[in-house]
Amino acid sequence: MTDTPPAPEFMTLWPTTIMRHRLPGSADANTILAEIVEDLDAGSADMTTDYLANNILEHEHPVLAWLKSCFDRAVTDYARNAGIDYELDWTIQAWANLNRMGDYHNLHNHPHSWLSGTYYVQVPTTETTLSGRSDRNPSAISFFDPRPQANMLAIRGDGQVDPEHRILPSAGDLLLWPAFLHHLVHPNLAREVRISISFNVVLNWRDEYVP
Questions:
Q1: What does pTM read for this prediction?
Q2: What is the dihedral of CA 27, 51, 167, 105, to 10 degrees?
Q3: For residues 176 and 87, is the Cβ–Cβ distance under 8 A?
Q4: 148-175: per-residue pLDDT in tens?
Q5: H helix intervals, 59-102
Q6: pLDDT, tens digit, 9 for 90 and up, residues 35-66
Q7: Which residues constitute the domain of residue 167?
Q8: CATH code at 95?
Q9: Where in 101-172 does DSSP place strands (E)?
Q10: Rg (alpha carbons) of the chain, rounded to whole number
Q11: Taking the alpha carbons of 76, 77, 80, 84 in that order, is the dihedral positive or negative?
C-alpha cells in the first residue's frame, strides 16, 4: 500500500497590507470637511506641501473629532488584522491636500511613522478632454513593491512580482498602509478640485514594541 504523499505547504512571507474602508456617515461629513479645507487653503499658500506646519485634527470642529475617531478605529482594526494583541499608543499627525487641475504627488514614503493613510473628501468624477496618451490614471494612487528588483523574474499571472498596485478611490474611502511603502498620486485632470486628508500614525515608543 502506497502512502499518500503529503500536500505541499505554502507560506506567505513579508506581506504588505493595505486597508480600504468606506466610512459610514461620510457623505454628510465630506460637505463640511471640504469647506474647512478650502478655508484653510485660502489662508495658506503652502497648505498641501508644508504638511508639518499644523495638524488639521487639532482644529475644534465636531466633524474633525469624528474623523479623528475614525482614524483611531482604523489603526485599531489594522493592528488587529496584523495579529498585534497588545496595547499600542500612538499619535496622529494629519494634514489637508487640495489638488487643482494638473496637481500631483511625486513618488515618496513617510519616514519616522508606523502607518500612513489618506481619507478622500472629494474625488473628481469627470475628466477634462485632453489629447495625448490614453493610459493616464487621473486621481488614482499607486503603491509599489517595497522589495528592490523583485520584478526582475516577473511572469504573467504571478501576483508576487506585480510591481505596482493602483487604486482609484471614491469620496468617503479611507486607505491605510505601512509608512515605508512608496506611493504616488496621479495628476488631477479635472476642473474640479481633489480634496483629501492624509495622516501619519507615529508610535509613542514602549519597550514591549521590540520584536
A1: 0.90
A2: 130
A3: no
A4: 888 787 788 887 777 888 999 999 999 9
A5: 62-81
A6: 999 999 988 777 667 777 789 999 999 999 99
A7: 19-150+161-209
A8: 2.60.120.620
A9: 105-108, 115-122, 141-144, 164-167
A10: 20
A11: negative
